[in-house]
Amino acid sequence: MNTNAETSADGSADAQTIAVRSTGPLEGTVVVPGAKNSVLKLMATTLLTDGTFELTNVPNIVDVSIMGDLLEAIGVDIERPGPDRLLLTNTGDLTPVAPYELVERIRASINVLGPLLTRCGHVRLSLPGGDDFGARPIDMHIAGLEAMGATFKFSHGYLEAFADRLHGAEITFDFPSVGATENLMTAAVLADGTTIINNAAREPEISDLCEFLVAMGADISGIGTSTLVIEGVEPWALRPVQHHTVPDRIQAATYLAAVAVSGGQLEIEGARAEHMTMLLERFGDMGLDISAVDGGLRVVASERLRSIDIATLPYPGIATDYKPLVITMLAVADGVGIVTENLYPGRFRYVEELQRLGADVRTSGHHAVVRGVPRLSGAPVKAHDIRAGAAMVVAGLAAEGETVISGVHHIDRGYDDLVGRLAAVGATIERRF
Ligand code: EPU
Q1: Is residue 385 annotated as a catalytic residue, yes or no?
Q2: Which of 149, 252, 297, 333 sits at a 20 to 30 Å CA gap from 276?
Q3: What 3 state SS string does 338-385 have?
Q4: Considering only the top CATH level, what class is 4-32+247-432?
Q5: Distance 135 CA to ligand 1 centre (A)
Q6: What is the pLDDT along the chain (433 residues), one digit of tens a residue?
Q7: Is any atom of ligand 1 closer than 6 Å to the C-beta of 386?
Q8: Contact 86, 64 (CB under 8 A)
Q9: How far is the CA of 319 from the centre of ligand 1 (A)?
Q10: Domain 36-244: which CATH class?
């Protein structure tokens, strides 16, 4: 699938870097694109029924292109008639196999499991890859689908799932897993009977997927709550739809963090305050003046940030994906902040990179203690994953001299023109080829 994103994920971006300097206040408007963690799931869900779907507010990122390649390999034709539009035509001639070469590049490939199993009765899926921050098991996906009648076989790196027709079941998660909620929900749409998911994930991207499914003809209640009830429908009840992807709250937070460390004021168009309530409150505690305006957020950063303590939690808590940004903000805040990671204990690798920029951060187990310094000092650093990469860019805005970030292909997986968007509001930032 062709993409307009700046690189492909085939390694050609490996030699590229982003160079950034602190230049003082940012000013202007940034438009937030659609959410990666929604659009990839919407794309996978088109496997449920034949016909042409239209997605708008699609971010121009490499992960969309990889998911496109995976769906094309399965039997969905994809066109990109405009930079933020996708047309996906499910041909009905599906090969329910997700090959290693594509799956290992993107975690969200696991989202084809539910739709393919419920639609085709059989799936062969290489185990998914994703980010470099520790084990990401899929036991809850498997246990939930087993409760609905699926059987699994694992051999040679592939997971095979079988089911004549899935049946409804009541499933209670130990933990509100985003991916497991999505897979069970999409599978349950065509199952026989009622599926109840207790302790379901409640992220805005899950609600976006629910709304997409309901528009397609699915019967789902409890949307936005931790109990989802899905009444299975017959395949003929589903139809392709047009859908506008929910805006990306993590990209929105990235621009908040950028202005927080640079000073200035930004309008963040498309950001949805109601999807970021707890984060915005905590950013307010740090000294940012944030208000909801028509169609977005307005943020004014006029003073040095103050430190806070925070812990990551499933939605509506502070998302783990915000954490590298928050640690970067704390690195230049006044005081000491303690950050506790409750989702991915290994998600602190970028701290070593921040230390290279002069940040005073110590980690122990799943805690980080951040003692703010007035200014960081530019150096070469690496992006280890999508969010850590964005945090390095923000750190570069808070550093004297030049910060040069390698591993840019990680940033391209999830950020739609981060460099151009920041440059347009006054950042000194460029991509080097
Ligand atoms: N978990 C299990 N077993 C499972 C599923 C999850 O133990 O079967 C554990 C995971 O190991 C982890 C926790 O539960 O410790 C959270 O996993 P979850 O399933 O909620 O996350 P995910 O669906 O794998 C999505 C996002 C991540 C984001 C997390 C948490 C996508 C493609 N990825 O992952 O986003 O960090 O939810 O909010 O939606 C990113 O965008 O950079 C990113 C990593």
Answers
A1: no
A2: 333
A3: EEECCCCCCCCCHHHHHHHCCCEEEEECCEEEEECCCCEECCEEECCC
A4: alpha beta
A5: 10
A6: 644 444 444 445 568 999 999 988 999 999 999 999 999 999 999 999 999 999 999 999 999 999 999 999 999 999 999 989 999 999 999 999 998 888 888 888 999 999 999 999 999 998 865 555 556 789 999 999 999 999 999 888 889 999 999 999 999 999 999 999 999 999 999 999 999 999 999 999 999 999 999 999 999 999 999 999 999 999 999 999 999 999 999 999 999 999 999 999 999 999 999 999 999 999 999 999 999 999 999 999 999 999 999 999 999 999 999 999 999 999 999 999 999 999 887 778 899 999 999 999 999 999 999 999 999 999 999 999 999 999 999 999 999 999 999 999 999 999 999 999 999 999 999 999 8
A7: yes
A8: yes
A9: 10
A10: alpha beta
Do the first three CATH levels of 4-32+247-432 and 36-244 match, i.e. the same topology? yes
The torsion of the CA quartet 217, 218, 224, 227, rounded to 10 degrees, works out to 160
Phi, psi of 52 (to 5 degrees): -105, 120
State the pTM of this model: 0.95
Exactly one of 84, 131, 208, 385 is catalytic; which is it?
Answer: 131
SS3 label, residue 35: coil
